[in-house]
Amino acid sequence: MKFPGFSPQALTFLRNLKRNNRREWFQPRKDQYENLIKIPMLELIECLNLEFARFAPNYVTPAQKASYRIYRDTRFSKDKSPYKTHISAIFPRYTAVKREGAVFYFHFTTKELLVFGGVYSPEPDELRAYRALLQQRYGELEEILRDKKLRQTFGKLQGEQLSRMPKGVPCDHPAGSLLRQKQWYLENTLDARILTSPRLLPELAKQFEIMAPMIEFLNQAIVRKPKPAKMLFAAF
C-alpha cells in the first residue's frame, strides 16, 4: 500500500482551527475534518501497520485504537480549547495495558512532524522494572544505541535524569547514566513539508524501524503474556 501524503487543504484546516478553536467554528466544518484529516490519518496508520508487520509485528495496532481523538479533555486543564491542533498516533506493544511501556508515536502540526520512540512517563512500578532490567543488561542497550544509523537519525538517547543514583543502586554502577534516567526515548523532528509528500510513509517506517530494537529491548522489562483464548472469547 502507498500513502500519497495529506492534502495541502488538511494543513490549511489545522491553521484555521488554531485561529478558531471553538465548537461554533468546528461543528459546521466537521465533515472537512473527517475527509481531510481523520480518514487519511486512518489510512496512513493502516499503511504503517503493514510496515510494522515486517519489522515489529508485536506493535501492529488497529487504526481506530492507534489514532488519538481530536477532542481535548479540558476538565483538569486551564486551557479550555476544545480541540487539539496536532494530529497523533501511538503504537504500543500488543500486550500493553493502557498504552504502557515503550511505544512508537508520531504527531504533526502545521509546522513539523515529530517522530518518537521509547518511554516518556512511566508509573513508579514500571520505572523500577526498567531500572532492574538495565542493572543486569545495560550492555545490550548501550550496543543498540551505538548503531550508526540510529545515531545519525536521532543522536543520543533522551530523557530527564535524577541528580543522584536511584535508591538501592550502587553509586559506582557502570550504567549510572542510564539508571539515573526517568525517561528513555529517541526523538526526531522533520519539516512539515513532508506531510503532503509520498515520502511521508517510507520516512516514518524507516525511522520506526531504526528505533525498533530499543523499543523491544525496553519492553522486556514489563512484557505481559497475552490472555488465554478462552478468556478473550468470554469478554464478548
In short:
This protein is 45% helix and 11% strand. The chain is an alpha+beta fold and 236 residues long.
Describe this structure in words.
It is built from nine helices and four strands. By secondary structure, the protein is of the alpha+beta class. It has a single domain, classed as Protein of unknown function DUF1054 (BirA Bifunctional Protein, domain 2). Helix 3 packs across helix 8 (200-219). The longest helix has 26 residues, at 30-55.
As for the CATH topology, it is: BirA Bifunctional Protein, domain 2
Number of helices: 9
Q: H/E series, N to C?
A: HHHHEEEHHHEHH
Q: Indicate the structural class.
A: alpha+beta
Whole-angstrom Rg: 20 Å
The whole-number mean of residue pLDDT values reads 92
How many angstroms separate the termini? 32 Å
The helicity comes to 40-55%
Reading off the top of the CATH hierarchy, the class is best stated as Alpha Beta
Task: Supply the CATH architecture.
Answer: 2-Layer Sandwich
The CATH homologous superfamily is termed: Protein of unknown function DUF1054
- Molecular shape: globular
| Lateral strand order in the biggest sheet | 1-2-3-4
Unreliable spans:
229-236
Summarize the main sheet.
4 strands, antiparallel
How many beta strands in the DSSP annotation?
4
Structural domain count: 1
What fraction of the residues are assigned to beta strands by DSSP?
Answer: 5-15%
